[in-house]
Amino acid sequence: MLTNLELEKLEYKYLEKYYYFLKFSMDEILIGLNSKQKIKNDWFDIWNKDSNSKQSFSVGAERVIYYYISNSRILGEPNSNPVSSDLMFEVADAFVHIDLKTVQTSNIGDISTSIFIGNNQNSYKSNVDVGGKTLFYDKANLPKYYTFENTKKPCLTYFITILHDSDTLENMMINIMCMPNGQLEEVYGSSVLQAGKTKDNIDRDNNKLSTVRFKFSKNEYFKLLENKKRIKIAYLNDNIKNNDIYSSKLEHFIRIHSNQND
Q1: Residue 197 DSSP code
Q2: What does pTM read for this prediction?
Q3: In the chain, which ranges are E strands?
Q4: Which of 233, 193, 197 is nearest to 214 (CA)?
Q5: How many C-beta atoms surround the C-beta of residue 135 within 10 A?
């Protein structure tokens, strides 16, 4: 097993690698994300009247992002593990999980301070404060380390988030963030998780929580690395700063973007 410091260094190493890949590929990624616009007349009316499909552009956006990441062999070898994030790669010193989240500005609160994470997308188990009561989240299905042939490789978790304008369909922001490995619970404690929106995931009788969100706003920095951030902004639309609602809701990201030294 790695020390906590070694683990954070590894998390930061691959955060930087994937971030700079996104930056390098951003022109092509934006072209891909905008490709829906030129055939908009053929799908918009169907999409616009379907309340279910209107909730998300996730399928199309994932198709674009996954195409570029999956076709870059320098980012790792894909792994077929069924209990994982949407993308899983093996690299020389770790297994990397990457999940894509798409959010529209009409639900901008879903990205302001935290994001939903699936049980198959994280390895972090900890106490969570819910309305003054401490509940325990133990549904994280990813291991802290994968073991094979007398070898242990840590499990690293990343999220790529895409925000688009609900009305114009314009891409507003693309970021990548790293959620701490479960071993780091002894460093971060209960600051990493918060309860989701629905009451259905709360079992107060057994003091358990079945689903959670990653509270990235409280975990902006790697705690054991000097001035290294767990969040990187790969793309930020200039129109965000000109919209009072967007700029107030996304103040956290705007500040990070302004202070990035690429």
Answers
A1: S
A2: 0.93
A3: 77-78, 87-91, 94-104, 115-117, 126-130, 133-137, 145-148, 151-164, 171-179, 193-195, 202-203, 208-209, 212-214, 231-236
A4: 193
A5: 21
Distance between CA atoms of 185 and 211, rounded to whole angstroms?
17
* Rounded distance between C-alpha atoms, residue 212 and residue 118, angstroms: 8
Q: Give the three-state DSSP class for 105.
A: helix
Q: Cβ(103)–Cβ(114) under 8 Å?
A: no
pLDDT digits (tens, 9 = 90+) for 108-120: 988 999 999 999 9
- Where helices occur in the chain by DSSP H, the ranges are 4-24, 26-34, 44-49, 58-70, 109-112, 185-188, 244-249, 251-259
Q: Please give the DSSP secondary-structure letter assigned to residue 221.
A: B
SS3 assignment, position 75: helix
Q: And the tokens for 126?
A: 């900890």
pLDDT tens readout for residues 29-54 = 999 999 988 898 898 888 776 655 55
Q: Which residue in the block uniquely carries the two structure tokens 């552009």?
A: 57
- Alpha-carbon distance of 147 to 29, in angstroms, equals 35
Q: Which of 214, 224, 160 is nearest to 192 (CA)?
A: 214
- State how far Cα 226 lies from the chain centre: 22
Domains of the chain: 4-122+157-185+219-259 (3.40.600)
